[in-house]
Amino acid sequence: GQNIDQPTEMTATEGAIVQINCTYQTSGFNGLFWYQQHAGEAPTFLSYNVLDGLEEKGRFSSFLSRSKGYSYLLLKELQMKDSASYLCAVIDSNYQLIWGAGTKLIIKP
Amino acid sequence: GAVVSQHPSRVICKSGTSVKIECRSLDFQATTMFWYRQFPKKSLMLMATSNEGSKATYEQGVEKDKFLINHASLTLSTLTVTSAHPEDSSFYICSARRQGSPDSYEQYFGPGTRLTVT
């Protein structure tokens, strides 16, 4: 079967750095997304990785290792508004988007 | 660009009635639109994929006679929950894939519709 694993919940301190991991086992791979979702709202796009390596975009960076079936989202200089769920999603060989359950990130002052 | 709207944002209806939710791509044409359902503290669950001008493809376990999907134009898809029951109460989210970008699988999400069936 297809599976995407993320930690259920993480806690970090304002101003710090946090890394949210995502491992996947899917039938084929055509890219990986990270989305941010605030409670009661729809997901918003953060990043897309299809090649190995690190993609940096401001305070957020995303890393991919296809051989290890692994990705992480790195958030720097955490702000209170970063408190949200972070969803990892993989495009499989049928070009279907397979969603992880999401990681709830709690930021404390 | 790439804005998707949903209407209504919240709806409360009585058991047995039908509810229609609209999903519009405001500044782009969407060949494909997706309908998701999300339960509290759970991930998105894909219900169906709709392509403009053709029948929707439903995921296993989703009743197509209960969740009617119409994708009549490149900017509008509708989801109708027929004979709604309290267990249909959920957060329904649509997303759209932009036309003419076959290498981009990014989905642009609408703001979601909170359905409560009493």
The gist of it:
The complex is a heterodimer of chains A (109) and B (118). Chain A has 109 residues and is mainly β.
Write the layout of secondary structure elements.
The complex is a heterodimer of chains A (109) and B (118).
Chain A: E1 3-5, E2 9-13, E3 18-25, E4 32-37, E5 44-49, E6 53-57, E7 60-65, E8 70-75, E9 84-91, E10 97-99, E11 103-108
Parallel strand pairs in A: 2-11
Antiparallel strand pairs in A: 1-3, 3-8, 4-5, 4-9, 6-7, 7-8, 9-10, 9-11
Chain B: E1 4-7, E2 10-13, E3 19-25, E4 30-38, E5 44-51, E6 57-58, E7 67-73, E8 76-81, E9 90-98, E10 108-109, E11 113-117
Parallel strand pairs in B: 2-11
Antiparallel strand pairs in B: 1-3, 3-8, 4-5, 4-9, 5-6, 7-8, 9-10, 9-11
Tell me what you see in this structure.
The complex is a heterodimer of chains A (109) and B (118). By secondary structure, chain A is mainly beta. Chain A is 0% helix and 57% strand. In chain A, strands 2, 4, 5, 9, 10 and 11 form a 6-stranded mixed β-sheet that branches. Chain A is globular, with a radius of gyration of 13 Å. Chain B is mainly beta. In chain B, strands 2, 4, 5, 6, 9, 10 and 11 form a 7-stranded mixed β-sheet that branches. The chains are: A mainly beta (109), B mainly beta (118). The A-B interface holds A 30-31, 33, 40-45, 48, 87, 91, 95-97, 99-102, 104 and B 34, 41-46, 91, 93, 95, 105-112, 114.
Which descriptors would you attach to this protein?
heterodimer, A: 109 residues, mainly beta, 6-stranded mixed β-sheet, 5-stranded antiparallel β-sheet, 0% helix, B: 118 residues, 7-stranded mixed β-sheet, globular
